[in-house]
Design a protein that fits this description.
Blueprint lengths: L1 H23 L4 H56 L16 H21 L9 H24 L4 H29 L1 H32 L3 H18 L1
Helix pairs in contact: 1-3, 1-4, 1-5, 2-3, 2-4, 2-6, 2-7, 3-4, 3-5, 3-6, 4-5, 4-7, 5-6
Length: about 240
């Protein structure tokens, strides 16, 4: 459980790193968008070849279908609730938000919790960590926190508050990885892990199309497609050599 929590914290710590970069280094939004697109490609590869494929091989069609459906609907409903409360997830939509830190935290956790649970679940049964999925999560976290930190600073929040916000998200993600590993271990990994994997795949894929891809294209232009393919290929080959 401690190892699962450690890896969950390690992946989520790049959120803090991204916020620190945003607060102390001026990076053009076009560069941030390309990094974001690279993370999108890496996540798509990890979802396809780590999560969904593994869920299908161990749980079959029912587990994948149920997990994907519940995961995508969970993200959709959660995102709609945040929007109705005046919140936005990040990027161009976040620019319209004023002093709504709770909405931003909830939006980040909506991504981070299923990701962290899956990271923890990869260690069940003495298995080794899924390096491609860890890599994809860690890389995609950097531009997420970077763009959010820039917008929060423009809204008037102090650097200490912004860093503290992402530290809390990182700690919650670590706890989710540890608790997910513990609960799934008690319940029996054979029946629940495939559904959790498919759930995370559905939630994250919905998030990518709804928020990260439009934001990356808005700020990065036509080069976004190339950066996305590069991220996909990197994660794919990591999957094959790990």
């Amino acid at each position: 459980m401690l190892e699962a929590g450690f890896w969950g914290l390690a992946a989520a710590s790049t959120l803090v790193a991204g916020a620190l970069i945003a607060l102390f280094v001026k990076i053009p939004r076009s560069i941030v968008a390309l990094v974001l697109a690279f993370g999108v490609g890496a996540l798509i590869s990890a979802l396809a070849f780590d999560l969904t494929e593994e869920a299908f091989s161990t749980g079959g069609t029912p587990a994948v279908a149920i997990g994907l459906a519940i995961g995508s609907m969970s993200f959709y409903v959660g995102d709609q609730l945040l929007s109705r409360r005046g919140g936005a997830r990040r990027g161009s939509r976040m620019k319209q938000v004023s002093n709504n830190g709770l909405a931003i935290v909830l939006g980040a956790l909506l991504d981070g919790i299923p990701e962290s649970v899956v990271l923890g679940s990869t260690l069940l049964g003495g298995a080794s960590l899924s390096i491609p999925f860890f890599f994809a999560v860690a890389v995609s976290n950097v531009p997420e926190a970077l763009t959010a930190a820039v917008d929060l600073r423009e809204e008037g929040h102090q650097p200490g508050w912004i860093i503290g916000l992402w530290v809390v998200v990182a700690l919650v993600s670590a706890a989710a990885a540890a608790i997910g590993f513990s609960v799934l271990g008690v319940m029996g990994s054979s029946s629940w892990v495939p559904i959790i994997q498919a759930f995370a795949a559905g939630a994250i894929l919905t998030m990518l199309v709804d928020t990260m891809i439009p934001e990356a294209f808005e700020d990065g232009g036509n080069l976004v497609g190339l950066a996305t393919v590069l991220g996909f290929a990197t994660a794919f080959f990591l999957n094959r050599v790990s």
